[in-house]
Amino acid sequence: MNYQTKKSSLFLKKISRATTTFTQIWQVRNLWVLLVGAFLMMACDDPEEIGTELFGQDIGLAYTDTLTVDASTIQLDSMQTSGIPSVFVGSMSHPVFGDYTAKTFFQVTNIDTIKIDTAGTSAYKASLVESVDSLALYLVFRRVAGDTNKTQTFKVHRVKSSATPTVSKVYNTGDVLPDYDATPLATVTRSPLHPIRNATSTSEDTSKYSYVKVPLPMSLAKEIFAQRNLSSANAVVYDKFKDIIKGLVLVSESSQNAALSYFSVGQSMMDLSYHYTYTYRKTTGVDTTVSVNKTTSFYLSNGTAATGEQNVRWTNVTVNRKGALANLKKPADALKSTDAGGYVYMDNISGLAVKLKFPTLLNLKNNKNVAINKAELILEPDQPLSGFTRISNLVAIQENGANRPLRYTSTNGFVYANSETQISSYATKANSYTFNVTSALQNILSGKATANGWILTPTWIGLTSSTSTSVSVLSSSRIVAVEPVQAVFNAKNIKLKVYYTHISK
Predict the structure, then answer these.
(1) CA angle at residue 24 from 23 to 27, to 5 degrees?
(2) Which is it for strands 334-336 and 70-75: parallel, antiparallel or unpaired?
(3) What Pfam families does the record point to (predicted)?
């Protein structure tokens, strides 16, 4: 093994052992001269003609994990709660994130009419007796955030006739619910809450999840039953039904440190049970009595976008923040980690996200040409706080310079921060989220990217890519409060690891 080979081998071993910033510089002039000389002898050219001065420069490989990462908690805009798989209610007090209170509005509609079917017997009908039996709301649990051992009292209110909710509007956590009657239609207390029959089930929206049954008054049942026997052309379904029952508001009263209950809009429903009997005389002169028991179901998630017959639903959330987070009062407010005990926070209910900047990144250049070989952004979270679940996936999007997500002009969608790893999944063994940010950092160093601020949030929407450019954007411009997840990061455990090549100018 010659001298140069031994030196290169030692250099590579040093890189593999590196844990902090170092730079290994070596001269390669003699090696390059030999190679170039051999090439020139074969080419019969004058070496002066190809610029051998280029090979006299210092070339180095380097690694660093000590670049400064400025971390802040920012308040995003109000989170969208219309059109998501859940409605949620309740109250929960959290020592870090504050006091949450949630109440929800939803509509129910039927697909089938309330039918009294005596088809084929009308010519001989002698009598018909109809009666409504019950009306009940079944709220199927999807998940719960908080203490399920605490008592919760659920109340259902009827929305006033003046309410005008519309499917054409996007509703957020900050939108006030429609006016509703102060006196509830029904009240049910669960003590303790204990929402899930099979805690080992990994699937949401299944029959393995229990429900809250809320019996509704017979007066409302009779009002709805009065819509029976209409012809199919005048069937009281979809929007026609919503003209009669504008909607319902669900609230939950509990101790402040109890729980938020998430109910599935795909499985929850309202059932109207009724029966009827009729007697008819056959052609033989014999009277026959028929008894029928039926149930008509009214669904929270119903209709199609094409017909505009979708139900309106959304959850209103208020948060009374505590401690340092109380400084986040409005969208785009920011709280530096240094002002929050060294920590930053994510919360998918009230819209807290983490903003990162890399103020010393450009120092890598140091009057050199720099090429990023590989770069990783690694975040190690603390253990989830009580009442929340761990975030499964994080998304990194670009920041617009004013603590808001950067939007792509033609689609208004949010722009991903990088192209290699757009969504990072939590790695249990390593206790970390890792983003490959090689091209993103190279774009900053080369000046192609004018800003180096990124916003990290839980994933809430899917990915699509522009067909006219290489820009990858999120398919929606809305931020959705899908589930009660959170993350707490010690800013010291957020690292930018960079492997790069540099050539002195």
Answers:
(1) 135
(2) antiparallel
(3) DUF4270 (PF14092)
The number of CA neighbours under 13 Å toward the Cβ of 319 is: 27
State the DSSP code for 420.
Answer: S
405: DSSP letter: B
Q: Which two tokens stand for residue 429?
A: 């063994």
- In the numeric block, the tokens 């959170």 are attached to 486
Instruction: Say if CB 303 and CB 309 are below 8 A apart.
Output: yes
Q: Within a 13 Å sphere around the CA of 121, how many CA atoms are in the beta-carbon half? A: 18
The answer, yes or no, to whether residue 388 has pLDDT greater than 50, is yes
Residue that the structure tokens 């009065």 belong to: 226
Q: Are 274 and 130 within 8 A, CB to CB?
A: yes
Domain ranges of the chain: 3-56, 63-77+331-504, 86-317
List helix spans (H) across 88-206: none
Residues 441 and 436: their CA atoms lie apart, in Å, by 10
Contact 418, 435 (CB under 8 A): yes
- Whether residue 151 is predicted with pLDDT greater than 80 in this model: the reply is yes
Residues 6+ apart with CB under 8 A from 362: 444, 445
Structure tokens at 125: 């009908």
E-assigned strand segments in 199-323: 211-216, 248-254, 259-264, 269-281, 287-299, 313-320
Q: 378 forms bridges with which residues in the sheet?
A: 434, 495
Q: Distance between CA 253 and CA 127 in Å, rounded?
A: 48
What separation in angstroms does the CA of 19 have from each of 10, 85, 490? 16, 45, 20
Start-to-end CA distance of the chain, whole Å, equals 32
